[in-house]
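Translate structure to sequence.
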């Protein structure tokens, strides 16, 4: 049997790595011949490698996954990878392509792999009609910012939604990722996180702290030299460095 090849396209390196690892478990024989960081690169690599399957994230800079799929046409089978809620996926359910919902579950991936395998002998479907439905069903969003974080919690490797993070804090060689009911450690330095996070959602309030703005309950002042952020529903306070006092002048 000839080898089956695939391309993975996602602007987040961690998400590409996660899908690659999960595919290795669900479909060991699959040969990942290329990875793309945006839609333009996905189109170019599909033309170069002619993969049997293309796993395309919908939200990517340059061409989106939808734009890339339209350009690729029926040259390969497409599986869309998306973070949209289930109620927004009606167009997928009726369509000729499959989809994976982030964070990807192994059981759902196994179903997708089984479906692809059963249809390998059939030519890829034309996507124009489905893509038109998807464009009407899915609102565009800014794809520039990090949406998921790969982190260790105990002995488990987990994908955490950035929206669920209350704050990040430097901790010696690691960065603490604090969520409502748990916390994790990652090796990504705060400076790198700062470059990848939406600055309207995460504020740096200290050399070693980034906080989710939606988690801020109030700010207390102790004279001219000290300020502290109080978090909603939590006991701890986060110190604010003097250079970041200006963030709270209107509070």
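Result:
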């Amino acid at each position: 049997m000839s080898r089956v090849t695939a391309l993975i396209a996602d602007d987040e390196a961690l998400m590409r790595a996660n899908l690659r690892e999960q595919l290795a478990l669900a479909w060991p024989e699959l040969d990942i011949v290329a990875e793309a960081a945006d839609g333009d690169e996905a189109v170019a690599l599909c033309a170069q490698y002619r993969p049997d399957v293309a796993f395309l994230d919908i939200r990517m800079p340059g061409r989106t996954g939808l734009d890339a799929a339209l350009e690729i046409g029926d040259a390969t089978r497409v599986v869309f990878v998306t973070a949209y809620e289930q109620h927004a996926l009606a167009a997928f359910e009726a369509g000729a392509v499959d989809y994976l919902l982030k964070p990807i579950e192994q059981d759902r991936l196994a179903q997708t792999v089984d479906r692809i395998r059963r249809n390998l002998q059939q030519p890829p479907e034309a996507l124009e009609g489905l893509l038109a439905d998807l464009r009407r069903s899915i609102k565009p969003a800014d794809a520039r910012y990090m949406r998921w974080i790969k982190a260790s919690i105990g002995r488990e490797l987990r994908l955490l939604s950035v929206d669920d993070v209350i704050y990040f804090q430097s901790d010696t060689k690691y960065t603490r990722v604090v969520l409502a009911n748990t916390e994790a450690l990652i090796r990504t330095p705060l400076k790198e996180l700062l470059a990848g996070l939406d600055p309207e959602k995460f504020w740096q309030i200290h050399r070693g702290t980034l906080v989710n703005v939606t988690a801020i309950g109030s700010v207390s002042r102790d004279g001219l030299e000290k300020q502290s952020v109080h978090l909603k529903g939590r006991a701890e306070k986060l110190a604010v460095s003097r250079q970041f006092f200006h963030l709270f002048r209107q509070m």
